[in-house]
Design goal:
The complex is a heterotrimer of chains A (387), B (590) and C (377). Chain A is of the alpha/beta class. Chain A has helices at residues 3-24, 44-54, 66-76, 89-102, 115-123, 195-206, 208-219, 232-242, 251-259, 279-282, 313-323, 332-335, 359-362, 369-386, and strands at 56-61, 81-86, 109-112, 128-129, 149-161, 186-189, 246-248, 268-271, 286-288, 297-307, 344-345, 365-366. Classes of the chains: A alpha/beta (387), B mainly alpha (590), C alpha+beta (377). At the B-C interface, α10, α11 and α15 of B face β7 and α2 of C.
Amino acid sequence: MNPRQRVSALLFPVILLLAACGQQGASSPAAPEASQDPLDAMSLEELVAAAEEEGEVVVYSFTSRIEAVEEAFEAEYPNIDLIGSDMSSTEQIARLQAEADAGAAEADVAYISDAPVVFGDLVQSGILHRYVPAAFADTVPAAYQEPLLANRLSTKVLMYNEEAYPDGSPISNLWELTTDEWRGKVVMVDPLVRGDYLDLMTEIVLRADEMAEAYEALNGEPITLDEGIENAGEQFIADLFANDVVLVDDTDNVNAAIGALGQDDPPVGFTSYSDRRDNEDEGWALQVADGVAPAPGIAFPALLGVVDGAPHPAAARLVIHYLMGDDSETGGPGYEPFYVAGDYPTRTDITPPEDALSLEEVGAWEIDPVAVFEIRQDVADLILTLQ
Amino acid sequence: MNSAAPAAATPPGALFWRVRRALRQPVVVIGLGVTFVLGVLAAVPLARLIGDTITADGGSAWSDVLASRLSENLFWSPLVATVAIGLIVGLGSVVLGAGLAWLVVMTDAPGRRLIGFLASLPFVLPSFALALAWESVFRNDLVGGRVGVLWAMGVGVPDWLSWGFVPVCIILIAHYFSLVFLLVAAALASVNADLTEAGEMAGASRGRVALGITLPVVMPAIVAGFLLAFAEGVSNFAVPALLGLPVRFQTLSTRLYGSISTGQTERGFVLAVLLICVAALVLFAASRLTGRGRGYATITGKGGRRRTLALGRWRWPLVAVAAGICLATTIVPAAVLALSSVARRSGQLSGELTLHFWSGASDPSIAQGTEGVLRNPQIIEAGLTTLLLGVAVAALSALLALGIGYVVVRGKGTLLARAVELMSFVPFLIPGIALGAAYIAVFGRPIGPLPALYGTLALLILAGTAATLPFAAQAGRSTMGQVAGDLEEAAVMAGASMPRRMAAIIVPLSLRGLLAGGVLVFVKMVRDLSLVVLLVTPSTTLLSVIAFRYASEGFAQFANAITVVIAAISVGATLLARRLEGAAQPWAEQ
Amino acid sequence: MTIEATATQAIDLVGLHKRFGEVRAVDGVDIAVPPGSFLVLLGPSGCGKTTILRMLAGLETPTGGEIRLNGTVVADGRRGTLLPPGRRDAGLVFQSYALWPHMTVSGNIEWPLKVRRWSQAARRQRVTEVLELLDIPELGGRYPGEISGGQQQRVAIARTIGPRPSILLFDEPLSNLDAKLRVEMRSELLRIHRATAATSVYVTHDQVEAMTMASHVAVMRRGRIEQFGAPRTLLADPATPFVASFIGTPPANLVPAEVIEGRFRYGGVDLGPAGEIGEPSLLMYRPETLQLVEAEAPGVLRIEFGDATPVAGRDIVTGWFEGNRLTAVVEQQPQASIGDPLYLRFPDRPQAVFAHDADAAAAIAEATASATGSAPE
């Protein structure tokens, strides 16, 4: 066989395969929400009975505190095995997406942040369903019930080491992070790897006007934008990266970097206010920087959703109910891991912990998931050019 | 079997008879079966990779990657870094590997057997083990948190030494030089003394003989070693992932991972296709350069007899250097890992020691309550899954090796044989990350009546078998090549059917080679990270991924402990393979 | 033991010894040949011939004795190697040819000339010359992996004679070739030997080669020389049973005779007076001196027919008597099948008589094994 025939003989099956694969394309999963699921209307007792029949429940959680919840839950409901998996929101989103494509849902409950993507992708395509236990329909503001229930607000804000800076935050204006004094001494997780940090960056861009004002307040003159930069928010991000911001892949690394005891000149960085709860155990001295102009960071909802096609739907709803807490003032064992400074329960009938700064005092921006979702990818691309 | 184009005037009926006759031949039957399997394993994912990039979304992904404001950071910079790493790792591995091979095979250096044994080990340890060991020693406080031994002692380790390009190159060289060593040592061992004696007879000095005769003759092995080190260096994911981020050092493989794990699948696939092109280009260019090289071994006739060079006063200095290299690349990292897995405070190896990370119960103040490695049910289960995965892939791989070897050797020169060879080579070009992504894309959702494989061990097994295809093909070829055609033909004369011949003649004779190949595949799967990192789920997870996660999260001691376990499994299995192969050290016979 | 004691011998081995640990590979060898000789070292494998060759080349060092080439001492047992291989004006053709696979044929031939710093013009010319001489002018640009075994051998020879050495060493060069090629190459080698006017030393276990090509033959066994001399001398006048059963096509018959009442007797046949000899002896009869007769008679031995081979118009007939093989060369092929009786008449006197002791028996066994090709090297 001459060379040409040989080559075409080999290419032919390849072309066939290409064609076959192209057609496989995206077979999208279930259509958006249909009618009300009967489980949604069950009372707590009925739910418990149904859940005990199911026997187990798988929870994907963006916080490692799910382990503590697991212990408490299994103490309360010994016949139900709670299997908690700690994975970042970004990972959860990818997994839930892939599992939906495969038509094989492994998880029952998603406890997830990164609301913009969750609303924009997962809820839109029906991968996550909303469930609001009747008991809390009144005590949670409507905003935190749609499109998914949130049991608290978490934060990604600027924090510092209170051992090294006992008199309060060394930063009072975000733009200080772009000055020589703080070159290489600002730590955060790579926004391209963690959605929450990308949301933080995006919110900064959305609040460009406030950023411009803050710049003027610090430097006395209006901001000038570099070529290709559209607004003060983008300028801040560019300057931050130009100032050697240190990127890591996990919040624990950020916490250790900022908060480790015994440092003379620790960096500052963006992380969760609620991580302060681990100060004693881990040997940290984390403290939130309040009163930072224009804001120290963002506050965002921690969402609870039932996964479409969940193998244990009743138990899933029970877990959500449990995570909302019980009647007690502090929310009870279900909410206890989250009853710390830095987590803000959505229920209006829970008294906040002592020595915690309120959301207003902290001054963090509450994000608008829809607005963030719109420009998020562009901000991601911008960051890509800076790395 | 002759599958040439049919002559012009063949009546249509004859074609039918031809096909029917062809289908009777065992080579054809096995060949078709193997082709189908290879098609599913190798061709389909590759086609999917390419296919996804030429859809509508794919089109914009191409421009994003190549010609937008993102391109600099997304593609071009990492490309330069990747190629630079490949070249430096290739060259460094050759210098180190060939140098040690020369020392072990061609000189009378004392302790050369031991050096030879140690020099073949680094390849067995996972590359991220070396990275973790490096961190344990050289990590500075750029990222805060735990620091390495040197920084804890007060030594100011600069950033360029702790992170990024320099340590990545050093570690990859330390990992891949042993591959080159094995290749070059085998080549040197097969150079018959006659060749060098003929040079001496011609009046050439020892040096001239070495440069003018010995070196050119083993050049093909050296080039092959360079290519392998280059290709592996280019597609390695674990090391730049662990050491690159804090200084924003990115390679194509880390960008690939980043793209896919954040949902930018088309971009990721574009990067994968580009990475494959880079690898293919280099391999193609180099194979051109060494076109004639392959037949050298057959000329030298009887091998084995060698004249060794007396080193004289250079003995001990050279041996010291060689021993130093071997220690630094095997014993020291292993010791560092083991030691740091029992250190109370990571980075302070001389401080308090504890077995907590191995066998301790859950302590909330340590690593958020994670239990010791040997007690943690998640880790134990991951360990079992890892072993199961390794064994399953090894078995499948051996089976395929048999089939591929049979088709390629018995059907030499036919279209079927060539197609099989080509397809079995394809996965070599695809970086592990990209292959994993392609597998999710193809098998992650249901195909007709077949269920989706996402999250199952089956998917891991399939992907693993595909990734190790080149090794299976190689093992199959060389094993089957040693089973002379005569032996099988004698069985045919005796009237034995194909399955009977397979069972009674071919399999028993190839068993040793296949087993050895199988064990090597097992080792590869146990320590692999880049292929599996995208494929595991919470319910089916593997040791390497857990170690990687722990390392990323700062649980250094746990990560190191798990890595020690993986390394132990790897080394143990490799030693077993060497035993099985028999010719452990062809240079060892004197 | 020298044949012609001329002023300067080309090659002179004096009391040469080589020990490898306990093994005495070469156990006291003396040989001297004049320039232009074709010396063949002949013997079964392990006899030490290759070791001597390698010592001549300079690739091994003697543990005792002296090697002189063209009058100069190049190595001795006491001082070791005095002149390294490249400087002895000697070339070696390896049994495996040892062609450098990464160089072309021309490259292989040219490289030794480069090492000796010939000018480019001189090298080019010599390469062409030598390729012509070996009759392979078209192979210049090919690689060793691309040519046949016979061609490789020619290239190996061409490479060796390129620098015009005065001594040529051959290590069983024809053993890898098929029978027909071997015969051709024998004359080729002689032709080249004469054309180069060198002194050649040729190692082989094939006595036919020795008989055809040599001017001097050293028959070796167990590190010692059994006999040294011209081929005809070895054939006509073998000094030991080993030489007698090793040399000759077909080899001579050695009949194990008893001495009974002063006469040799074998198989009931009287083989002549024994003279002074009293112990059992081996009587040498060349095959052409034995005759086949029609019927039994005194002085005729009845043997069993084995086979008959037609050679050059005659027949070599082999028969068996009590486990001993006897060979005769006759004019006409006998009409017999295997096992049939044949009648062999012996001449009045044997051509040689040797003592039949244990060593003789061992020697014969060795010679026979080697001649039938059962030993490789």
